[in-house]
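Review form for a predicted model. The reviewer records the input and the model, then writes brief findings.
Reviewer: anonymous (R2)
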Amino acid sequence: MPRKFRWLMLLLVFALFAASCGNDDDSGAGGGDEAPAPSGDTDTGSDDGADDGADDGSDDPPAPAPEPVSITIALGSEPTSLDPHLVDDGGERAVNDNVYETLLARTPNGDLIPGLAADMPTRLDDTTWQFTLRDGITFHNGEPFNADSVVASVHRISRLIDEGVTDNDGFFASLSGAEAVDELTVNITTEAPDGVLPSRMYWLKMIPASAEDAADLSDSVIGTGPYQLTDWTRGESVTLAANPDYWDGAPSITDVEYRFVTESGSRFAGLLSGDYDLITNLNPEDVPQAPQAATAQGQEHPVLILDADEGITADRNVRVALNLAVDKEAIANSLFSGFAVIDAGQLLSPSILGHNPNIEAYPYDPEQAAQLIEDAGVAGETITLVGESSGRWLLDAELVQAVAGYWQEAGLDVDLQLPEFGEYLDVLFDRESRADAIFVSSSNDILDADRQLSTYYQAGGIGSSNSNEQLSGLIDEARAEVDADAREALYQEAVQIAYDEAYFVWLINNEDIYGLSERMSWSPRVDSKLLIKEMSAG
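Model under review:
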C-alpha cells in the first residue's frame, strides 16, 4: 500500500508520466518496485528509495535515512590473533572489544556495572557466583545469548589454560567451571575463594555455545557487540560494520577501519593528512601540532622484568644497580615531555587496591650503580635486554634504548634486542628460557592488583622471572580474601617484598595520548579501551 500511495501522488502531480509508468501492482516487476535499500545505503536522491514504512496518512515526506559515518583508526601493531581467548594482545583488544561483550562492564571512569548480565552477581558461597542474564540478546550469527553461552565461554578458556595455549592464565586461572541453572541464570565457580571474580567477568568475552570446542576463532569472529567483523586483510587492515540489531541501540559510527602503522611519525602524518581519524600512542612532542589530542592517566606501566634466578641479574645487588642507573625523571620530563609520572617502585597505580604508599622510587644514583656493578664483579659483562620494535606502546623502543644507554654508562655491555611484536611475545611468555631483562608495558586491565601480581610478580606467572615462595603465597592468599582491608594489607606486603628484592626496574606511568581528527568527538577511558560506540564523528 505505501508504494501505491506514493505512485498515486506522483500521478496527480506529474500526469505527463502516467502513460509511460503504467499501473503499480505490488508484483515487484516494475522498475519502481525495487526492494528497500539496506541500512546505510547512500542513494537518497529518489523518493522511491526512501522510507517504505506503513502509510500514516501524513503529507509530510518521510525522514531520510541517516548518512553513514565511517572512521579510520591507526594502531601501532596488528592483532596477532582475533581469538579473544587465545592472546593477551592490545591490538586484538582494540578490535574485539567492539565485537565481543562481557558479563560485566565498566564506566569510562572504571566503575564496575552490568553488561550482558542484567545485574551484579550474587555470591552464593565461597566459590560460587550467580549471574542473571539479559533476555533477548543474540550473537551476530543469530544464536541466542544465554546461560549455555556463558558455560561454553568458561569451559573454553579453562580448556585453553589446561592445554597451555593461551596467554590469559593471569586473568582466568582461578576458574573451575560454570553451570546453567536455567536459560538466563548461570553459576560460575572458582577453585578457591576469589574476590576478583567480578572483575574477571569484565574481561572474559562471551562466545556462542557452538564455538566451545573451536581451536582458533580468528576466522569466526562472532560476538554480541555493536560491531561485526567484515574483513581482515592480513598485514593491512581490519574492517568492522555497525550491528543494526545491537541490543543497546545501533551506534552512530557505521563503519570503522583499523590500519596497522608501526612508526609513530607515519601515524601522525596520516592524521595530519586526513587519512586517519584517531591514532594511538601520539608522540608527546607532536601534541601541539595535532588537530586534537586527548589524554588520560592510564594504566600503562613500562617496566623491565629481571631474571632473579639465573644469569647476571641473579645477584640482588646487580638488580638494585640497574634501578639506580636509570634517570626516571629525565625519561618522564624529556622523553615523554611531561606526559608521565615516576613509578613508586610498584606496578600498581595509586587508585588500585593494594598500592603501597610507603614505597618510593629508587633514586637516580649512577655512581652507586657503577660501584655495585664493580663490587659484584660483573663490570664489562653482557646483559641481554629485550624490547620490541612495532610501536605497540608509546615510545617503547626509544624507552628501552634510553635504558640501555644508562646501563652502558654504569659499566655493562648491553645486548639490546628489538624483535617484531609476534617474536617479542614469544620471548616474553617463554617460561623455559628467560632473558636477563625484558621490557613490558604492564596495563592493569581488570583494574585489580591480582592481574599484575599473578602475571608478573608470582612465581610461575606467565611473565614472572622469580621463584620467591613467600611472595607467591601472599598473592594466593590475597586472591582468596574477600575482605577489602585484608586484601590490601596482603598486596602491600607483596609489593614491598618485590621492591626490596628489586625484581623489576620500575620506570614510569605514562599517560595515554591519542591524536584525533577535527571531526572526532571522544574522551579516553581509564581502562584504555577503544569503544567505538562511545565515539562520534561529524
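Findings: Residues 1-57 have pLDDT under 50 and may be disordered.
Further findings: Residues 484-501 form the longest helix (18 residues).
Recommendation: see findings above.
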